[in-house]
Amino acid sequence: MIIIVVALVAVLIFVVFLFLFFSFIRLWIQALLTKADIGIGSLIGMKLRNVDYAMIVRQKIALIQAGVKVTTGELESHFLARGNVPKTATAVIAAHKAGLDLPWRTAAAIDLAGRDVLEAVRTSVNPKVIDCPDPGKGKQFLDAVCRNGIQLLAKARVTVRTKLERLVGGATEETIIARVGEGIVKAIGSAHDHKEVLANPGMISQTVLHNALDAQTAYEIVSIDIAHIEVGENIGAKLQAEQAAADLRVAQAEAEKRRAAAVAREQEMRALVEENRAKVVEAEAQVPQAIADAFEKGHLGVMDFYNMKNVQSDTLMRNNIATMTGGAEGQSGSGR
Known about the structure:
336 residues; alpha+beta; 14 helices; four-stranded antiparallel beta sheet; 4 strands
């Protein structure tokens, strides 16, 4: 019976040994042989903290073998912060091999900020080219107008290199594209003649490069090359034609306004004539009553009345003669 119990204990110890061997000891031996400095206690602690200790060991071995100084705690902290440890480790190794200064802490911050730290290192080593404007935004050319009114359509290719120390907090590619586009439009707009720009497109690049457009961005502008430039519309002439058409419409509106005012004034004058004519008719209607009153009061005699009638008849006759013979003869007749 005692022999059986001892045998069972031995088997149990052997099973535990196998579990530890395949779970921790193998990794511990690997770390020991590669001078990664990870103890059994650290492995058990990472296991208890639900950390992928096998991955941590592999990445630290890779970093140590590449000559990068990093602690197990830094790797574990980045893992617990939901960082991408393998990609960050690969980026740090690549930067170290390329001679770039990229500490683990900086790389981890870049990774946690949501940036692709490995791509940033690759871009820092091999500068990439950005199209300006971005074709993905649906615009193929930048359009700008020279001082002589001629529109130029341009496309630039911007070569940039990632600045790792400015990657956290620095502006992205969209800012570079926007600033370069603004600089190109400004440079073309400053040219007196479009022929100057067509003869020397490099003047645009030189003008833009001197404006420090990569300030506060995650990139350093290496070069700006004008890939395409062509003549567009004559914007100056088009604007002048549109201005002339607008002036014509304004003049027509003013003329129509004056015509309407004249028509209204004519109608007012006709109404005034009719009003005065009504007053004359009213005054003439009062003449017989006034003559009757003059007779009753003795202010007008019979002979005076007939003399007045003779004058009226003579005036009527002269007017009729003037009407039949014309105005001039009528006026001369009236004078006689």
